[in-house]
Amino acid sequence: MKEKSLRGLLLAVAILLALPFTANDARAEYGDVVMNNFADAAGMRPVVFPHWFHRIRFRCKVCHADLGFKFKAGGNEVTMAQIIEGQFCGACHNGEVAWSIENCDVCHSGTPGTATQVHGNTVKSMLGKKAK
After folding, report:
1. Which long-range contacts link 52-59 to residues 24+ away (Cβ below 8 Å)?
2. Domains and CATH numbers, the chain
3. Is 17 exposed, middle or buried (0-12, 13-18, 19+ CB in 10 A)?
4. Per-residue model confidence as pLDDT tens digits over 7-47
5. CA spacing 20 to 30 A to 44: which of 69, 81, 111, 117?
């Protein structure tokens, strides 16, 4: 019985996470990464990458070693062409492992003009610097 309840809860959470964002502002949580190296210039909203959501499912090495993401916000110049070719996010977001890239607003949900950063960065707050 507990297994059935857990499955129902997980399904409900998955459905909620799959819904497109409806607010105009980024729904960045503590530790999420805002990626805006190219988005503003391309007329797109910045990407809000839910680091915590991926981290509870995968070990750090999956993205930071196997896929080549650097341990620094903005450390990689990720382009949509690379993602379409199966690099970086495209290694999983290919329609088989995770949703494919056709739903732009799922990832491009940030507030225009937001700089590339780790949202709610603890190190910056400890140093007395404000995270933008």
Report:
1. 53/17
2. 22-126 (3.90.10.10)
3. exposed
4. 666 655 555 555 444 444 445 556 789 999 999 999 999 99
5. 69
